[in-house]
Records
---
Amino acid sequence: MRLSNYFLPTLKEDPKEAEIVSHRLMLRAGMIRQQAAGLYSWLPLGYRVLRKIQAIIEQEQARAGAIQMLMPTLQPAELWRESGRYDDYGKEMLRISDRHDRDLLFGPTNEEMITDIFRSYVRSYRELPLNLFHVQWKFRDEIRPRFGTMRSREFLMKDGYSFDIDREAAEKSYHRMFVAYLRTYHRMGLAAIPMRAETGPIGGDLSHEFIVLADTGESGVFCDRNILEKPIPPADTDFEGDLSSIVSDWTSAYAATEDMVDMAEFEARVPAQRRISARGIEVGQIFYFGTKYSTAMNALVTGPDGRDAAVHSGSYGIGLTRLVPALIEAFHDEDGIVWPTSVAPFEVVLLNLKTADEKCSSICDKMYHDLKNAGIDVLYDDTGAGAGSKFATADLVGIPFQLIIGPRGARSGEAEIKNRSTGQRQSVALEQAVPLLQKTIEPERRDRI
Ligand code: 5CA
């Protein structure tokens, strides 16, 4: 992408309304624009990051056996009256009526709708287990939307729903999602810690929140430092096999949110030097709620014994539009964002330091062509801006590698590669730049870890 043809409305000044660094940087880097309280447009650069996150989530869901579909944002109130949540949800639910005065709502989550789909088609235990997910916009009329897309009213969520014949099978489905979540966040470069959590309006008795430690996080958390050392299950993990040993290894280390913590137990189980009591951002939550919705909505399956029983379910959420600021909270410095390559909007930014110089420009144009052909996501700063301003923009938007070419290098046959995260600069022969970048970027894409 040529920057001269792109839409990247960066801001020089710090926006006053932004209280935390991720919100400030998302506005300054031209990633989002607020349209009303808690409603955001995703500008091109921000949208690229969102799409990269979505691709990682979709790949890991598929690996774990979940099946993707798409449900509408609007839902009939009727379904929510069946479960009893139409009244329970209160003012957080956005209620709408159509031209025929039929009651609709903008979905805050999809347990009811998916249960309705399930009961319409599935009759027998032979069709189980089943895990269906979608990535769709949600609306919750939060009292205090804040910190940009960290807590917004409209937000993008991956929500998945599992269906099993009994609790034992449902726990296996829960384990598959638990392991898929460990891999998903790890591929984004994040340490997201699974913690025992309250179930709230979703219900049930088993739940984990996945939390990224950050001072600006809204949740108080208590955990054993050891959990940060646990191994991430590899890509070739057998998701059809028994994952309980992986889950019990992770859950053996103490980790709980402030709603669930038992201080006496925390202090008894975790030696003082290993105790972390900190703040964190909830980037996902998984629930097992048994037959809460299937009983209320009459979603029955026939078991091997020929008898009908309510299906056992869980739900599994990931906040995509919250992950973007969570990543920035984890990866930034005083100059701007420092994206991990796997979620970066572009992998390389090519800086032409002097577009008026014909030789410099023709070398940059060729380099741009070669980078694209090598399958590298490249943003080409071919604008007439000065070198200082180009460096500042490149640092602000946080693309992992900067390939810098000026008139002097153009003549001596050299370019410079700057690594955004280490700050290291390296001179390379022009013809070596693309192969070297390719070799460096390949493992950083993290798609095979
Ligand atoms: N039905 C279940 C799981 S599918 C559910 O709705 N879970 S949830 O309420 O925990 O939401 C899932 C994830 O969405 C959260 O972990 C969080 O990352 C994200 N999320 C929830 N509310 C907001 C919000 N107001 N703004 C941004 N992200 C949010």
Note: The pocket of 5CA is lined by residues 109, 111, 140, 142, 151-152, 155, 157, 159, 202, 282-285, 315-317, 319, 321-322 (CB under 6 Å).
---
Amino acid sequence: MKYEELLYKLNKIGIALSKERNYEVLLEKILTEARSFTRAEGGSLYIREGQELLFLVSQNDKLPENKGLRGLRIPLSSNSIAGYVGMTGELINIEDVYKLPEGTPYKINLSFDQENNYRTHSMLLVPLQESGDQPIGVLALINAKNIAGEATSFDPRYEPLVHSLASQAAVALRNAQLHGELKDAYLDTIFRLSRAAECRDMDTANHLERISLYSTILAEEMGMSPKFVENIRYASPMHDVGKLGVPDSILLKPGKLTDEEFNEMKNHTIFGAKILSDACSEIITISEEIALTHHERFNGKGYPNGISGEDIPLSGRIVALADVFDALASKRCYKDAWSIENVVAHIKKESGQHFDPKVVEAFENCLERILKVREEYSIHKAQSI
Ligand code: C2E
Ligand code: SIN
Ligand code: SIN
Ligand code: FE
């Protein structure tokens, strides 16, 4: 490839990396692109954690099934080449790692070759580094090939280009990390705010986790897209925020509600949708939809609008089942917990009435996973809240 073509390709890779928000996918992409760019048979990616490098991704055309040494930790030191690059930020291009010249400031760590019965010859190691900063990781490319597929060494012309690729990768990784942290902070906020809306005597944090996980499992079981599954996971915990607008005298009433009280209770759907309306975020918009429709019934006898069938958004139909399952299987201030047999019988009986038959079918097919979540997020394990 001509140098101009390489530059052009490098630029395209940089743009593609900057768009990837999923950290794991990004790690794989960086390695794939760097390998194809340099025609490397294999490669590994290490991310720095404190004074260690964590071995995260490994790819090798000769060892397609190899899981590498994922999880292995290497100290930042001259006892390994990667550790040395992580420590110093130097780029290292070696023709044959088994023939390191006298006086080389680092040692080679042969555990990868030994575990995989592999022979590493040439290596190109590049720090993942934004200019001037301490490396956030190390990219190691193994066994260069020429166009004919024969072993060769890494062309020194590649060095500045791979260096540039690595610094773009570092920026993209930092952005993906920030994105992940923002998401965690967002979720944490959602759970905290939703808790404020819930009945005080209830195992609320676990209740919200369970609704979120039940809805996620049901959506997965129904074959929905990963995007939909993720949206419902994050949006469903807010289904009852409208209870913030319901007075304690009703929300905490130990016994049965009067018709008037129940009518007021029903407004939690409309009130919740109002709180969540006009958001720019897709997730909040879906939570608005869920808040409004999670008490609609498939047969049209629900509230607040009495819509039926597929006029009820799928997210609302899914959360309706998740919510009732959890309400029945749990103790509430106004009722005891039912046995699981009775809960399951009730849900089956309500197929086509309260619930969408397709959601009920999915529920029956994934009951085992749902019961596992229920076990894991039970009141007994909620001591920290
Ligand atoms: P929730 O406690 O989270 O219950 C959610 C839904 O689960 C209920 O929606 C209902 O469809 C189902 N569910 C809960 N308990 C039972 C039950 O014992 N039998 C049957 N067949 N289904 C049950 P629903 O009825 O629209 O109620 C919405 C919310 O209104 C409830 O949320 C709860 O906060 C409140 N609520 C409903 N009934 C009473 C009551 O008698 N006393 C009090 N204090 N609150 C009530
Ligand atoms: C809830 O539905 O989240 C709690 C309401 C209750 O226990 O009455
Ligand atoms: C609850 O939601 O009140 C706790 C019951 C349970 O752990 O399932
Ligand atoms: Fe509700």
Note: The longest helix spans residues 158-196.
---
Amino acid sequence: MEKLIITIAPTGNVPTKELNPHSPLTTQEIVEDIKKCQKLGASIAHIHVRDENLKPTSDRNLFKGVIDRLDEEKIDIIKQLSTGARGGENTVDWRGQMLDLNVEMASLATGSSNFASSVNANSPQLIRALAKKMYDNNIKPEIEAFDVAMIHNAVKFLKKGILKGPLHFNLVMNVPGSIPGTPKNLMFMVDSLPPGSTWSVCGIGYSQVQIITMSILLGGHVRTGLEDVLKMTDGSLATNELLVKRVVRIANELGREIATTDEARKILGLA
Ligand code: MG
């Protein structure tokens, strides 16, 4: 089986210091957590940033701040920027403003769904425009599929040449308002992927351990981090380091080796 790519998603849009005081929200905190997680085995960093009020934003300067620091400290990790719908204005110019930065990947949701209290609004026009900007800047999209329809949309975009294969998916499961994180649903999603795709999973909240373990067994890759889960199974507060350590521990038990950053680049066709 291919080696396991671990993505660390340290920050996201939802965590606050009240929900979990270990949430990295400032540039310095985000960089420190990514640094520690890279040492533990993470090869991709899925990056979100917060403004001066610690609210989610798509502000290019803040993304640049994190990337510059990672580059200065020579942290060898694939940088993947979020173009998600919760960073402010829902326009291509706002959500795609950071796509001229020197990074290898960015997230791209290929359909719309609900979050707990807002809409994950991604119109066909917006998806097309963000995809174009990514390819123009030599950035590989990670297709974020919150349900099976988003996989089918991605296949449609692939046929039209708007997306270029082989595709890499992140199957986002158990977001309130999206596909529940169950083993059956994971199998359904994996069976729906176009041939030759690579894929990763993120299970939100309590579904995480089960979904991650299944993905490791099935040959998929995994994402973890406080963006996706705030507590460990026993109810204690999680940290990004503890979450990466847990993935490594499960992979070790199951006999799946962890990919280095260069190995992850090869698997994803980034080299
Ligand atoms: Mg995200």
Note: The domain at 6-268 is CATH 3.20.20.70 (TIM Barrel).
